[in-house]
Amino acid sequence: MTWTPLLTAFTVLLALQLLAETWLDALNRKNVRAHANAAPEGVREVMDAETYAKSVRYTLAKSVFGEWQGWYDAAWLFAWLGLGLLPPLYHFFAGAFGASLPGQAAVLCVVGLVMALPGLPWSWAAQFKLEAKFGFNKSTLKLWVTDLVKGTAVGLVLGYPLLCLVLWFVRWQPQWWWLWAWAALMIFQLVMVALAPRLIMPLFNKLTPMPEGELREQLLTLAERTGFHCSAIDVMDGSKRSTHSNAFFTGFGRFRRIVLFDTLIAQLSSKELEAVLAHEIGHYRRGHVPKMLVVSALMSLVGFGVIAWLAQQDWFYTGFRFSSSDGLPVALLLFALVAELVTFWLHPLGNIWSRKHEYEADAFALAAMGDVAPLVGALRKLHEKNLSNLTPHPAYSFFHYSHPTLVEREAAMRALVPA
Ligand SMILES: [Zn+2]
Q1: pLDDT of 258-287, one tens digit each?
Q2: Contact by Cβ (8 Å): 64, 125
Q3: 80 CA distance to ligand 1 centroid (A)?
Q4: 3-class SS at 393?
Q5: Which domain holds residue 247?
């Protein structure tokens, strides 16, 4: 089998990414170990000594697990492309399904499913070994398998027609297919943002309107006061799978809704829940969702432009041991596999932007509550209950964290409202 310059570039990029991730993980673990005996000043009150020790063990275990998983995934990616396992696999299914348009789309789906198989033991172990060891897991093997089957089915039901449509655009508009495909994907995404809470989420979780009562009244009053007009707050049975807790809002326009995990409601006081809700509303009122949609739309446009260009380059196919006669389906597949090697280095940019949004939402919540205590209290409890790392290495959090650290968030809030 021939080795090509493109495979050299691929291998170098893969190695660089692995080295960067391993180095950041090592820095992070070193920092956590350096503070393993006692939490530093400023976060000492967040957890008692026993919980803190447990959070250190959890952080270290998760980090080691993630590192092995990263090496394992990289080894498989290298096997598919570097060792050349992918071309025979692809051609086997291409021979079976034929060159018709629905056939080509089916090949991509099946190849994608086969390539996902090696990752399954890891997601099983993450839930039933790692999470279970620290008391977070509430899922069962049956529920886990059901989730997997449902998730795959939903992916195919939505993805297969979309893929057919993209391939049809290619035949219909060979020059400009990528603009059409991009536009179709954007419309599809908008529809999904609006409909997913009603159509997809209920397949996996039970969403029930928060029952009438003092808490509901209090939260709706806050929503009204902060300019977020909504009639319902949904409670999601997150406790079905895990004791981790969360809150988010989905949809837009009249489809928007606030979702609180039942675990969150169990963990926080009503004032703290108000503060979390105010933070979520802050994201909405500061226009973070449309901003993110616009930026991700622009990124997809660039992505499609790059695919369209790569699909016309012989070396892109032959470099990965395919042939340019394999055509666009293979270009799509290869792009999906290697794009992350480049976009990985852009993660910090995305995270800087996301952290900026978090600060803005915190400031909004602070103004709405008129007091630092509820949001700080909520954040501290969430860190305690989720055994979050209180001492991440600055380089690690800079690269990987979509939220500022607890210390950073508290400092920013205290700067706004001096005690
Ligand atoms: Zn947020």
Answers
A1: 889 999 999 999 999 999 999 999 998 999
A2: no
A3: 38
A4: coil
A5: 205-267
